[in-house]
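Thread amino acids onto this structure.
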């Protein structure tokens, strides 16, 4: 009798399940065709939906749909900002730019490209200072927080409550108590690197803080990739810090932690600060609904140096692919030298072709990577692609420990890209990133010397090194490469 009931139930439910699977797979097919840009991604998701009944459609629901749209928050804020005083270019600025482009004519199209991509005007009168590791970056940032008079905006992917984090918490709390408006935004996944919930601790102390897309079930998988990887600190709307350094003690080499991390960070003054503040305010409004405007957040900007600079936001929403286009534009304009410093290097096919073409045109392309990063799977996945760059003339150097987390791109000793972006799919397609382009010969030469010093202590990779790898290692690396769209 029990078997008969089970058989009848099976015969009754099977058509319903099949119908549901057909409807779900059809819905995935239509949504993917209408919304996905990458043909291979469309084929992969559609195939999974039809070949894995219901589970494939469920996976697409959790992982394949981008639910993050910040356009509403951005439009609302920009309407509020319409009345604020913009930085005005002078005739002397226009003359200087014309003279600059006469000396470097290849930059003309690139300046136009980034203006269209970013929606920001290239701004003169900036001072950009290099800060080495947390040893220099953290004291400078803490001093700025202690000197703040009206506002502090802090956005960090990781904010650990360790020796470094505790110092920042104390400084932020002191600023809040003396009447400074403080806003702290920490990524919802990055916050989990710390055993102590830093946002809860800040809130309990009276500091206004929030988590960006906290991964609570059942949204854990849906937002696992949509991380805010930006590092931005703005003081009183006139002094800023950005780069690749998270708030954690591993970045302070003098503390001799178990896993020290080398990184570059930058202190910025001048009109470009308004670009850092705008990105923070859009992320803050998206997360909390609070619109930050007025002179305490957006004061009039003064000139502080000779660097022309501009902020570039990138993310898996309306800003998708802006950094990819920026990188490709920079590689195509290069005439003499390209230097890349990045901790993770799994570029997409288009960027590989751009690097190969630059080398084939006679441009010296140097790529500096860690010999061993903090993610072994990424190292394995990166190795197969290096062969195709080496055979076209790119030079790849592997730096020894400590792990180098710096992110820099230099072109022709005049153009610098600095910020939070790595050369991998996670940064270029799955995360929210912030970078700054700088047209500054002195800064470019300073950073070139830094890269060359690190190359001198690195091991230059040869084609023979890759050819000598055992079959098992090659298979392991090849299998790891299959995960590269998600690394």
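Threaded sequence (487 positions):
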């Amino acid at each position: 009798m029990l078997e008969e009931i089970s058989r009848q139930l099976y015969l009754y439910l099977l058509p319903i399940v099949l119908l549901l699977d057909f409807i779900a797979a059809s819905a995935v097919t239509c949504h993917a065709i209408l919304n996905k840009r990458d043909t291979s991604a469309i084929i992969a998701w559609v195939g999974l939906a039809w070949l894995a009944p219901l589970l494939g459609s469920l996976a697409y629901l959790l992982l394949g749909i981008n639910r993050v749209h910040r356009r509403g928050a951005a439009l609302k804020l920009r309407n509020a900002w319409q009345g604020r005083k913009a930085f005005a270019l002078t005739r002397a600025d226009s003359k200087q730019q014309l003279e600059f482009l006469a000396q470097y004519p290849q930059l003309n199209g690139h300046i136009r490209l980034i203006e269209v991509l970013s929606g920001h005007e290239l701004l003169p009168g900036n001072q950009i200072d290099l800060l080495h590791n947390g040893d220099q970056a953290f004291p400078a940032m803490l001093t700025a927080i202690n000197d703040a008079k009206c506002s502090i905006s802090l956005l960090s992917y990781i904010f650990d409550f360790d020796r470094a984090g505790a110092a920042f918490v104390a400084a932020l709390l002191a600023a809040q108590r003396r009447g400074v408006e403080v806003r702290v935004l920490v990524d919802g996944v990055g916050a989990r690197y710390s055993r102590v919930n830093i946002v809860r601790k800040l809130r309990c102390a009276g500091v206004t803080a929030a988590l960006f897309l906290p991964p609570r079930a059942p949204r854990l998988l849906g937002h696992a990739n949509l991380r805010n990887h930006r590092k931005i600190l703005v003081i009183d709307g006139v002094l800023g810090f950005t780069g690749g350094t998270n708030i954690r003690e591993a970045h302070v080499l003098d503390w001799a932690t178990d896993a020290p991390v080398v990184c570059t960070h930058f202190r910025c003054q001048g009109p470009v600060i308004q670009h850092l503040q705008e990105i923070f305010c859009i992320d803050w409004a998206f997360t909390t609904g609070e619109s930050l405007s007025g002179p305490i957040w957006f004061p009039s900007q003064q000139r502080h140096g000779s660097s022309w600079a501009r902020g570039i936001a990138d993310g898996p929403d309306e800003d998708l692919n802006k950094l990819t286009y920026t990188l490709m534009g920079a590689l195509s304009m290069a005439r003499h030298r390209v230097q890349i410093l990045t901790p993770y290097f799994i570029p997409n096919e288009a960027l590989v072709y751009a690097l190969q073409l630059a080398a084939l045109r006679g441009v010296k392309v140097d790529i500096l990577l860690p010999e061993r990063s903090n993610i072994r799977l990424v190292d394995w996945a990166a190795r197969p692609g290096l062969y195709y760059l080496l055979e076209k003339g790119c030079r790849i150097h592997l730096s020894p420990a400590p792990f180098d987390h710096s992110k820099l791109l230099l072109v022709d000793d005049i153009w610098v890209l600095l910020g939070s972006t790595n050369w991998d799919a996670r940064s270029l397609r799955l995360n929210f990133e912030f970078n700054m382009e700088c047209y500054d010969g002195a800064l470019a030469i300073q950073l070139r010397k830094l890269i060359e010093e690190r190359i001198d202590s690195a091991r230059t990779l040869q084609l023979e090194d890759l050819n000598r790898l055992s079959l098992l290692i090659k298979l392991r690396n090849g299998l790891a490469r299959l995960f590269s769209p998600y690394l």
